[in-house]
Write a structure and sequence with these properties.
Strand content of chain B: 15-25%
Helix content of chain A: 40-55%
CATH topology of chain B: Sufe protein. Chain: A
Strand order of the largest sheet of chain B: 3-2-1-4
Number of domains of chain B: 1
Helix content of chain B: 25-40%
Largest sheet of chain A: 7 strands, mixed
Radius of gyration of chain B: 15 Å
Structural class of chain B: alpha+beta
Mean pLDDT of chain B: 87
Shape of chain A: globular
Low-confidence stretches of chain B: 154-161
Oligomer: heterodimer
Radius of gyration of chain A: 22 Å
Largest sheet of chain B: 4 strands, mixed
Number of strands of chain B: 4
CATH superfamily of the largest domain in chain A: Type I PLP-dependent aspartate aminotransferase-like (Major domain)
Number of helices of chain A: 15
Shape of chain B: globular
Number of helices of chain B: 4
Number of strands of chain A: 17
CATH architecture of chain B: Alpha-Beta Complex
Mean pLDDT of chain A: 94
Number of domains of chain A: 2
Distance between the termini of chain A: 62 Å
CATH topology of the largest domain in chain A: Aspartate Aminotransferase, domain 2
CATH class of the largest domain in chain A: Alpha Beta
CATH architecture of the largest domain in chain A: 3-Layer(aba) Sandwich
Structural class of chain A: alpha/beta
Order of helices and strands of chain B: HEEEHHHE
């Protein structure tokens, strides 16, 4: 018996294996306009595998009660499942302790938590916050609100024509007033993977803490917060095959402890009188009110699912799809890819000469193809390229080359309508 | 659900390719800028009133084919009409696009009924309405308008990554 040969998968077997995961997603069997749904908008929100849907049903049918309160059995089960999901997240990002993981309503909420909890407590007039051209609005607007309130200033790292940040320019932005860096790990509009580890190290040379918006990174690559040495890291469940309404914020325990609470309410207190409230410890200090318990448990289940496939395998496969699609689009006359960084995730933003992205989106929908069209909540990037909007196809491991071919055919037919 | 391709008819594509009354006037008694923040469409519309009549009108801006064709056809439709007639037309166009007006009801829309199918594409209704919305603002001497907030003709779309 040749054991070694039996365990080394041939490329064909590997392809069949990754293809089989697609069957885990019931929504991908839908038809749109009598054509099979081709879902190329996972960067906006990914679909949910049956195992996560089942987990939500199981929780709701046999485990639900409010957490951290009552002494009856059901409440204990719910609390233990919720805290279990926190530990799954801790392991997923390799945080030192589970109390460094805070459940939020999503990435936006996580950034707002840091803005209120850290920024409002520590920033003053003329302090400087470094952002980048590639930020999503959710990592711009909270800091602008803080700047308006405190008189702090925002500095922006520029990007080159490929959509890569200019690290030399980034280094020049630091001075004695620099108090914070908040930057996106992977651009949602262009797919650029930023060199965050290097950028964090540069900030730390100046004793400046760094928040990483990992909404587009965590679903596609291994994230190790200790290796990155980031001070904060955040992402959402619904871009990671989990439910909407929940996300997480990682923060180094010391920083989280130094911060003021973001929201006040039940579950975040040690004691309350009308004269004074004493706050409880992290992470609960930042989890006022009843959290999205079911969604958090679903988040944990999505992480189990992702790890069962393996992020390296996912990343390799998505890269292959990206390269295949990039080649095909580059061959099309009148179509230009926006965002051509060397390191990218499966995001393809493109413009077609003489055709507005919204017309492209409407006509592709006719073919059952779902792409995102617009500014992708990243208007500064659109301004950088002097375009109003793009069409964006984004890939997940449940997509395949047949779907890329359908996209290319769809673009042809859009061009034909306008020819 | 209608076939969206049926909306992209030759008339609309032609007005998109060769928009009528495109550009700016030397002088204008009325003007307004319309903006749809969700998709970034932006239109500038200006016209001159002679008595109660719109005798000159022009538009320019950055927009999708539906919006540009709607603006182009609008300018040809309202040129030479009185403010009162134009107000009626604006109301009828909005009602048609949002499904409140049936084409069997009496109306003055003429060739503009080519946009009637837009009612079945809720995400695109605002594209067709923006020029009319902007014209309305100009008539009422509001210099800027948006398809959002209190002016929202249809339920707002979402703004996510």
């Amino acid at each position: 018996m040749n054991v070694i040969n039996a365990t080394v998968p041939t490329p064909v077997q590997a392809a069949r294996e990754i293809e089989s995961f697609r069957n885990d997603f019931p929504i991908l069997k839908l038809k749109i306009n009598e054509k099979p749904l081709i879902y190329l908008d996972s960067a906006a929100s990914s679909q949910m595998p049956q195992v996560v849907i089942d987990r939500l049903v199981q929780y709701q049918t046999s485990q639900h009660a409010n957490i951290n309160r009552a002494v009856y059995e059901l409440s204990e089960i719910a609390t233990s499942e919720y805290e279990g999901a926190r530990r799954k997240l801790q392991r997923f990002i390799n945080a030192r302790e589970d109390r460094e993981v805070i459940f939020t309503s999503g990435t936006t909420d996580s950034i707002n938590l840091v803005m209120h909890g850290y920024g409002r407590k520590f920033f003053k007039a003329n302090d400087e916050i470094i952002l980048t051209t590639l930020e999503h609005h959710s990592n711009i607007v909270p800091w602008q609100m803080l700047a308006d309130e405190t008189g702090a200033k925002i500095r922006v790292v520029p990007a080159n024509e490929d959509g890569e940040l200019l690290i030399g320019e980034y280094k020049k932005l630091f001075n004695e007033r620099t108090k914070f860096v908040s930057l996106i790990h992977v651009s949602n509009a262009l797919g650029t993977i930023n060199p965050v580890k290097e950028m964090i190290a540069i900030a730390h040379e100046h004793q400046v803490p760094v928040l990483i918006d990992g909404a587009q990174a965590a679903p596609h690559m291994t994230v190790d917060v200790q290796d990155l040495d980031c001070d904060f890291y955040c992402f959402s469940a619904h871009k990671l095959y989990g439910p909407t309404g929940v996300g997480m914020l990682y923060g180094k325990a010391k920083l989280l402890e130094s911060m003021q609470p973001f929201k006040g309410g039940g579950d975040m207190i040690a004691s309350v009188t009308f004269e004074e409230t004493l706050y409880t410890t992290i992470p609960h200090k930042f989890e006022a009110g009843t959290p999205p318990i079911a969604a958090a448990i679903g988040f944990g289940s999505a992480i189990d699912y992702l790890l069962s496939i393996g992020l390296d395998k996912i990343s390799d496969y998505e890269n292959e799809l990206l390269n295949y699609a990039t080649e095909q689009i580059n061959d099309l006359a009148g179509v230009r890819i926006i965002g051509t960084a060397k390191n990218k995730t499966g995001v393809l933003s493109f413009v077609i000469d003489g055709i507005h992205p919204h017309d492209i989106g409407t006509l592709l929908n006719e073919e059952g193809i779902a792409v995102r069209t617009g500014h992708h909540c990243a208007q500064p990037i659109m301004q950088r390229y002097n375009i109003p909007a793009t069409s964006r196809a984004s890939f997940a491991f449940y997509n395949n080359k047949t779907e890329v071919d359908a996209l290319i055919k769809g673009i042809h037919s859009v061009q034909k309508v306008f020819s | 659900m209608i076939n969206a391709k049926s909306l992209y008819q030759e008339v609309i594509l032609d007005h998109n390719r060769k928009p009528r009354n495109y550009g700016a006037l030397n002088e204008a008694s009325h003007h307004a800028v319309g903006h749809n923040p969700l998709c970034g469409d932006r239109l500038n519309i200006e016209f001159n009133l002679e008595g109660q009549y719109i005798n000159e009108i022009a538009f320019q801006g950055e927009s999708c084919a539906i919006c540009k064709a709607s603006a182009s056809m609008m300018t040809t439709a309202v040129k030479g009409k009185t403010c009162l007639d134009v107000e009626t037309l604006i109301q009828e166009f909005r009602d048609m696009a949002t499904g409140k007006l049936s084409l069997e009801d009496p109306h003055h829309l003429g060739r503009l009924t080519i946009f009637s199918n837009i009612r079945d594409l809720p995400t695109r209704v605002k594209c067709a309405i923006l020029p009319w919305h902007t014209l309305h603002a100009a008539l009422h001497s509001e210099t800027s308008t948006s398809t959002e907030a209190e002016n929202d003709p249809v339920q707002s779309s979402t703004d996510t990554a």
